[in-house]
Design a protein that fits this description.
By secondary structure, this protein is an alpha+beta fold. The chain has 8 helices and 18 strands. The structure holds flavin-adenine dinucleotide.
Length: 404
């Protein structure tokens, strides 16, 4: 195990430190709450068992988007909020988030009609009316092929061009942490939380293990922001607790650049799900799958089945080229920390949950990467509202603060 990296920690003084807020999990949720809280004046530490940002938050499809497909599930508030946050990301984090042009080609054999997609685009534009991105437009079959020569023209009717954004997901986590550490955040990397310290059945601190051994950290508030690992921490706190998340796996493959200057929104012919082919760092990223996963989140892999599923879907839309497993340069998979429910995974809400257990341990999970800032603001508002002296903290600063 590498040496635990700790910034100006009171542990170096051999004391058990005390913070207003202890955050467990250094993905985007933990990082953004840490930044928001520290900028408002709380004392905060962030604990990550591996390296920051290497969990789900570096395995996304890298889209800062409203999620046009969630309109089908009537998640209008989620889409509206994500589109508002997409705009804030474009303004405040231009080094990490850039506009991306999408083409949604419509085929005769497709599940969604051109009319339905036009209605969806109209609604998407309406929900993003404050956006600086261009408005969507209709494209003819000829215009689509001219723009994307690798795309199959067989049965193509026409389609839409629309605009979303692409983000450097891993770097955004680090940028949030950097801004927070510059303002006093204490970080514990390669440090795992193994237990909670309780007094009168209330959580008062955490036990941590790192290369330096086992020690204690105390906090007025403790936040479980471990994404797909949330259930594990919740069970340590309350062994009889019901699961909080029921993760689904999303796999991606990366191939050499196809002749696709724009991103494509496509339907998986096998099951009508939406998937993407996206230009990414000079290559083409294809994803994702969506399959239930109830194993240990540390053991997630991209299986042959995942690769076959994505290759089969992509090949249906390619002219003059058929991708095989030999064309896959790289692949990665992540777990969507979706709220636990009896519903089918595709029907479950993509919105976030903030929940306090009987011991006072707070759990933050779910949500989309795109709306992390809003999620963090809501969480810190809640934490401050429970503080004995809430007026001693300033208002949220992240709406207009740049991320360099
Ligand atoms: C396949 C896929 C594609 C996606 N695409 C998009 C997209 O294009 N756009 C979008 O907006 N959203 C997308 N999302 C959603 C988004 O990526 C996630 O919601 C988000 O990254 C979750 O972040 P997190 O901080 O909750 O979890 P994570 O990033 O997983 O962070 C949790 C951290 O907790 C740490 N941890 C666990 N246990 C402990 C412990 N005991 N002690 C200390 N640390 C611990 C882990 O090591 C991990 O680093 C996608 C998700 C997936 C899975």
């Amino acid at each position: 195990m590498e040496r635990s990296r700790q910034t100006k920690s009171p542990m170096e003084l051999n004391q058990s430190p005390h913070y207003d807020l202890i955050i467990i999990g250094g993905g985007i949720n933990g990082a953004s709450v840490a930044r928001d809280a520290i900028l408002r004046g709380l004392t905060v530490c962030l604990i990550e068992k591996n390296n920051f940002g290497l969990g789900t938050s570096s395995r996304s499809t890298k889209l800062a988007h409203g999620g046009i497909r969630y309109l089908e599930h009537f998640e209008f508030t989620l889409v509206y909020e994500s589109l508002r946050e997409r705009q804030l990301l474009l303004q405040n984090a231009p080094n990490y988030v850039k506009p991306l042009t999408f083409i949604y080609p419509v085929y005769k054999s497709g599940h969604r009609s051109l009319f339905r997609i036009r209605c969806g685009m109209w609604l998407y534009s309406l929900l993003s009316r404050n956006s600086t991105l261009p408005k969507h437009k209709m494209l003819t079959k000829e215009e689509i092929i001219e723009q994307c020569p690798s795309l199959s023209s067989h049965n193509l009717i026409g389609g839409m061009m629309y605009f979303d954004a692409q983000m450097k997901d891993y770097e955004l986590v680090l940028a949030n942490i950097k801004d927070a550490t510059d303002n006093g955040l204490h970080t514990y990397e390669k440090t795992i939380v193994t237990d909670f310290i309780k007094e009168n059945n209330k959580c008062k601190g955490v036990i941590i293990e790192s290369e330096q051994g086992t020690s204690k950290i105390y906090g007025s508030c403790i936040l479980n922001a471990t994404g797909p690992w949330c259930n594990h921490l919740s069970k340590i706190d309350e062994p009889t607790a019901k699961p909080l998340v029921a993760p689904t796996k999303g796999a991606h493959i990366i191939v050499d650049p196809l002749q696709l200057p724009h991103a494509l929104t496509l339907e998986v012919p096998q099951d009508n799900r939406v998937f993407f082919m996206i230009p990414w760092e000079g290559k083409t990223l294809i994803g994702t799958t969506d399959t239930p996963f109830d194993g240990n989140p540390d053991t997630i892999t991209v299986t042959d089945q995942d690769k076959d599923y994505l290759l089969k879907a992509a090949n249906m839309y390619l002219d003059n080229i058929q991708l095989t497993k030999d064309d896959i340069i790289d692949s990665f998979a992540g777990l969507r920390p979706l709220q636990y429910s009896e519903e089918k995974a595709s029907k479950r809400s993509r919105d976030f949950s903030l929940f306090s257990s009987n011991s006072g341990l707070l759990h933050l999970f779910g949500g989309k990467y795109t709306s992390y800032r809003h999620m963090a603001e809501t969480t810190v508002d809640y934490i401050i509202s429970k503080h004995p002296n809430p007026k001693s903290f300033s208002a949220c600063k992240t709406q207009s603060r740049k991320l360099d």
